[in-house]
Design a protein that fits this description.
single chain, alpha/beta, Rossmann fold, 31% helix, two-stranded parallel sheet, 168 residues, six-stranded mixed beta sheet
Amino acid sequence: MEKYYLSYSEIHKTLKKLAGQIKASGFEFDVIVAIGTGGFIPARILKTFLNKPILTVGITYYDSNNQPMEAPRKVQWIDEVEKRLTGKKILLVDEVDDSRVTLEYCLRELLSYNPEKIGVAVLHNKRKEKRGTLPEQVEHYFVGRELADRWICYPWDAEDIDLHESMV
């Protein structure tokens, strides 16, 4: 399978552009919710530009061989979730919208806490048919960059960062 190798610099610039799109849209939100593990770094970089607090959730959908499991499952969730999310405006962040299954699962969980508004921001969207759907309550869907359906090699997953950077 053909792969994309991305540098931290390229990712940072894409997220700066994405933050500009979010600001320009007028979508106001109270909190960023990062989907771990892939959404942690994009959410943190977005925080630099959007200056909002971050909460994190752990969702697993891929096994140790990078194969999708039957369904996503929660690994970690937000303490005092009702207090932190009920009536709030949420921006859910992940690194990639691939099958959309993880996003749908997480959005449905978050919506069960009755937020006032919810939007999604992904660093990359793979142009392909999705198995999951975005619930109709999602008011905004922001994408940093559209990509063909290839494996994305993020620098934070690299065991040898020098080798990774040489592939960019």
